[in-house]
Amino acid sequence: MRVKDIIKRSPILYTAVIKAREARKKISSFVPDELYIKMQYRKQMGKKIDLSNPETINEKIQWFKLHWHNPMMTKCADKYAVRSYVEEKIGSEVLNKLYGVYEKVEDIDLAALPDSFVIKVNHGSGQNIICKDKSKMDFNQAFSKIKGYLKSNHYFYGREWAYKDIKPLIIIEEYLDDNGRSPADFKILCFHGKPEIIQLDIDRFGEHRRNYYNVDWSQMDLRFIVANSSVEIPKPHNLDEMLCYATLLANGFPFVRIDFYNFAGKIYFGEMTFYPNNGIGTFYPVENNKMIGDKLVLPYLHEKQPNSLVKGSIKGR
Length: 317
Description:
Blueprint: H1 3-9, H2 11-28, H3 33-45, H4 57-67, H5 71-77, H6 82-89, E1 98-102, E2 117-121, E3 128-131, H7 139-151, H8 155-158, E4 170-173, E5 184-191, E6 194-202, E7 209-214, E8 223-224, H9 239-250, E9 255-263, E10 266-273, E11 283-284, H10 288-293
Antiparallel strand pairs: 1-4, 2-3, 2-4, 5-6, 5-9, 6-7, 8-11, 9-10
Helix pairs in contact: 1-2, 2-7
């Protein structure tokens, strides 16, 4: 068993790790954002970043963290608040069923919940707990994790500005079970309000595979962290509908990734993120890092959009 798995299984160890991480975060919070980003990028990518002339998508995401501070980003990065944004733009039928929203775990009424559900926090990334069978769930361990999540501020880990002022909440939603696997996850990368690249994640909590497609569903020669699937994936019958939804939600944002689940023939909204993977990691073949980066034209951020639903702002202007 990996050390990471041992820690996850022990509430005491997990709480200790969270406290240590938060202590490091408090110390690093005194480091200015730009310096912190440069240090983190060099440590994790093995090279310096030139923020005065970013070229790759990861370099531009780092620039984006520092200079594109739009209040709507905070709402859309908030996994609870974004629901009203989605409902306004495309309707409530794409929203997953919500069982409850809480400020602390003590407020959760387990007896009122169904046998399966997902517990998550609204202000972070990857901080989810899946309950497939309530009678077999160790809620002491689960709630210990959630308490740790609530104390965190995702902004400090990578200076992802959109998360900075989100009020932490607990969300419990319906668990979408695709025959024991998580449903296909369609992550649509949108540049200047237009869908450009589709990232498809299959069986994320099992034998995870990831493919990339153009919007016409032609597979791209592209890999990022996870291996491609060896199985040919047919074009979803409702792909055009997903792309239409993504366009409506992305309007006014220079760059955003919009996630949907395609489950039992129905589209469910997942989340909106402005800094995928914290802007860290390498696409292969490596020339694709600049190819994707070219789609985000930074000078555009200094221009006003006459038809934009969301007004952006450059920090310091």
